[in-house]
Amino acid sequence: MRSIGEMARDSGLSVSTLRFYDGAGVLVPAWVDPVSGYRWYGPEQLEEAGLLARLRRAGMPLADIRLVLAGWSGADTDLVRKLLEAHLRRLERGLSDARSAFSTVRALLDRREKDPMTVLRNAATAATAAPGTTGAPATVRPAVSAAALAAALDAVRFAAGTDPELPMLGGVLFDIEGDALRVVATDRYRMAVAQAATTGYGGPRVQAIVPSPLADAMRALLTGDAPVRLAVDGDRVTLEAADRQTGGRCVDHEFPDYRRLVRLPAGRRALVDVAAFREAVETGPVRAGEALGQDGGACDLSVLKVTADGGVTVCEDGDDDPDRVAVNRDFLLHALAAGARDQLVLELGAPTAPLVIRRTDSEDTFSLLMPVRLED
To answer: How many separate helices (H) and strands (E) can be counted in the chain?
Structure first.
C-alpha cells in the first residue's frame, strides 16, 4: 500500500490533485483510515494514476476519463479505444479550427499593415508613445518620490512575465503621461497596475518597458523619500537617485494596451482582513486545475465566493454556488502580499471575469487575476 504522499511522488500527481480525483470518484483510494482519514492506495492503482495523468495532459474531459479508467482493466477494451479515438478527433478538429482562425487573423494583419491609412494612424500613435518622435521631447526626465516609485514597483513586480517567447511581457512598463507615472506588469494570467505622481514633465504619453533585472536594480536604489529622476532617452531608461544611478536599454517591443484590459464591469466588492484571509487561502480547500502557471504546469485553485454577510470565503468541495470564482492559489497569495495593506477590497464579477484586488486608499493600484473555469 502507498500513502497519499508516496502515491503523489510516484505518479507525478500532487497530493491535492489526488484528493480532488478521490472526491470526484475517479481515483478512489483502496482504503481510508477511519480514525485519521488518511488515504492509502493499492499497488495496481499506480498504473491507473499514471494513466490518469497522461489523459489529463491530453485534455480529456473528466467524464470520459472516468469511463476509460472503469473500462481499462476489463476484457472488452472497445469502449476505451472509442473514447480515445473520439477525443483525438476532437483535438484534431480543434486544431483545424484554430489553424483556420489564425490564418484569417494573419490575413487581416497583413491587410492592416499594407493599408496606408492604418500606417498613418500607427505613426500618429507612436508619436505620442515613444520619446524622440513628433509630439514628445527627445529626453523625458520626470521626478518622482523614491518611496512612491518603490511602492509602485513592489505592487506590480510579481506579475511580470518570464516567457522568452513573449519578451514584451518580460519587464515592467513605465507609462508616463502628464503628471502621472503608471507602472504595469502582466504575464497574461495576471496583471498589476500602480500609479505615482511626477513633477517636471507634464507632456504627452511616453512609454518604456524596463527589463525585470533593471527594474530590480532600480528598486534597490529607492531608499528614503527624496525625489529621484527617471530619464527616458530614446531606447534607454535611467534612474538617478542622489549620487547613484542605474540604467540600460528598454525592451524593444510594444506593450499591450493595458488600459483596454482593465475596463471591467463592476463586480461584488468585499473588504477582507488580509492576515485572516491569507490564512484561509493557505489552509483552506484547494481544487486541482489545469490552469497554467509561469512554469507551464498545472496549479492548485482557490475557489471563492461572496457570502451573504458581504465577506469572501474559500469554498469547500461540493459547494455548487454558480457565482464561484476560481483562481490560481499561488497567484492570489502573491497579489495579497503585493497589496501591502492590512485590509484589501476583493471584487468578484462573473465566474469568467477577472478577480480584482484593490487597495482601500487608491483606485489606481490594483491587481487582476484571470479566472479558471471549473469543470463542474
So the answer is: 11, 20
Q: Are residues 250 and 297 in the same domain?
A: no
The CATH number of residue 352's host domain is 3.10.150.10
Q: Structural domain of residue 286, as residue ranges?
A: 264-369
In tens, the pLDDT along 318-329 reads 677 788 899 999
Q: pLDDT by residue (tens digit) across 286-305? A: 887 654 544 455 678 899 98
User: What string of DSSP letters covers 146-203?
Assistant: HHHHHHHHHHHGGG----TT-GGGSEEEEEEETTEEEEEEE-SSEEEEEEEEEES---
Answer yes or no: is 115 within a domain: no
Which of 20, 54, 88 finishes a domain? 88
Q: Report the half-sphere exposure of 228 (CA within 13 A, side-chain side).
A: 26
Give the pLDDT confidence of 207-224 residue by residue, as tens digits.
999 999 999 999 999 988
> Which residue has cell 522568452?
164
- Are 325 and 355 in contact by the 8 Å Cβ rule? The answer is yes
CB 248 within 8 A of CB 258: no
Summarised one tens digit per residue, pLDDT across range 29-79 is 999 988 888 999 999 899 989 999 889 888 888 878 888 887 887 777 888
Query: Is there a single domain that holds both residue 247 and residue 161?
Result: yes
Angle between helices 274-283 and 329-339 (to 10 degrees): 160
